[in-house]
Each structure stands twice: as C-alpha cells, then as structure tokens.
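Problem statement: downstream parser choked on a complex file, so we are re-checking the raw output for the copper (II) ion run. The parser issue turned out to be on our end (a line-ending mismatch), but while we're here, posting the original submission so the record is complete.
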Amino acid sequence: MDSIRHWMLGPQGSAHANDVDVLYMFLVWLSVFFFALIVFLTVYFAWKYRRTKEGVLTPNISHNLALELLWSVIPLIIVMGIFFWGFNDYVRASVAPNDAIEIHVTAKKWLWTFEYADGTRTIGNLHVPVNRPVRLILTSEDVLHDFYIPSMRQKNDVIPGRFVELTFTPTVAGRHQVFCAEYCGKSHSDMMANLFVDSPEVYQKWLEEGDPELQTMPPVEVGKMVYENKGCNSCHSIDGSRNTGPSFKGLYGRVEKFTDGSSITVDENYIMESINNPQAKIVAGYEPVMPTFQGLLRTPELRGIIAYIKELK
Ligand SMILES: [Cu+2]
C-alpha cells in the first residue's frame, strides 16, 4: 500500500505531508471501491434482467423508497465526512504559526528570487532550516506563475499585484525540487528552483556567508550583483551622472569634499565606512539620506562592491 502511495505522490518532506497523503489515498481507494461496485452491479443486472423468452417482460419496478433513501443518505454522509476532513487539513496546512521564518518570493519570467528578513537575496536557491515552520510570501512581477514543491505537498498560484502565502514545516533535510506549475511562456519548463533543507548550523552558516559561489566568483562580478540587487543602483549611477547620491564612476582615488569642510582621498576604508555608517561623512552637495548597510552585506559582498567601484574609472 505504501509503495502505491509513494508511486503516486512521491516522497514526503513536510510535517503535514502525511495528512495530505492519507486523505488522498482514502479518496483513491474509495473511488476504486465504488468503481468496482458499480461495474459489478451493471454487469450483474444486465445479466439478471436479460431478455429470456420472447414476450416475457421484466416486472415493472418503478420505485423503492427505502433503496433510494439508502443510496442518497450514505453518500451524503461520506461526502460530508470528506468535506470536514479535507477542510480541517486544509486550514492546518495553510495557516503559518507565529514563529515561522518569513521569506519573500518573487516570480519573474523565468526565475524565482528569494529575499530573507536580513536582506539576503538569492536567485533559484531557497535555503530553510529543518523542522522550523516557513512562511513564504509570494508575488509576481509579470504574469501568473505557480509555486509548487511536490515533496512539501504545497502549491499556490503566484499573482502579479498581489501577495499570496504558502507555509510548510520541512522535516526531511536535503534538496527538494521546486517547479513553476502555471504555464508562463517559452521557458516555463525551465522555471525551477532548489529548496535546500539544512540543519540549523548549516543554515546559519549559509545566512552569514552565503552561497559557496560567492566565495569563488570574481569579486568584480559579486560587486556588480550587489550594486544591482541591493538597491545601490537606485541612488548611485555608474556613468558619472548625478542621482540622489554621487556616481560611482571615478569615485576611487578622487578627493571628496564633505559638508563640514574636510576632505579625503577615497580608498577602501572610506568606501567601507560610507556603506556601514553613511552619516559619518556627508559628501558636499548631497543630502544625508543613504541608509546604512551595516550587517546586510557579507564580507565577500563588501569586498565585491569595493572591487567593482575601483573598476569604474
Ligand atoms: Cu512561471
């Protein structure tokens, strides 16, 4: 029986997966039972009430109140039972507990982006710790998508202009597959992501240090990613044009004047300070509006953005 379940539904990975499977398999076996019963009765009655002799008619049975009540009331009870059972499971599988880890998910043709409370942002790889409830808050930047993790028994349409939720408590460590389950254009079938269920230690290390690729990627590329993904690009240009903040072009090595009249030759430490404590020195002619990124950028990311700024001569 269990191998049939496994064959139909795949491995279980979340706390509520077994509830889903038990109800699903109940429906399957109930359907098998009624299918067999109805086929059997159809064949049996066809045989029993077949025409025997020319001119002999089957007695005309038009009505049987007891029978009709029986075959209406029994299915009614079964269907009501299924409704309450399913509704109860649905509510329990849809409501996230208060201590759930919140992660924002953005769908865009044809990528899944994940954003954590600490500002960590990843594309295509979702990391969560094992045995902790997770609450995903999903939206789409373009068309309808559908976030589907078969092993977690969770799936929800992702709708542009709206937030939807999806919650689960992963119980099985390892890699799980995420699919887009709503046709969304040419590369819909490639719109996949990995869900990594980590031990609490591995998860914490990942949160602090990020993907291993971050360590091996050339710093300038990491920096470009930081510039585009962490919002620096909304205030700083890279082509010399003035924005809310000064352009990064030619910044490194330039003599910068500050509102208090002092000045400095821009080096690594000044860039680092500007990121972690932007209010320490305010560039003359600009407003002190830059938010601090203290704790939001990891060491390789800091190294990366500095390398990137140095490249923009
Ligand atoms: Cu999609």
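For whoever reads this later: The pocket of copper (II) ion is lined by residues 107, 145, 180, 182, 184, 188, 191 (CB under 6 Å).
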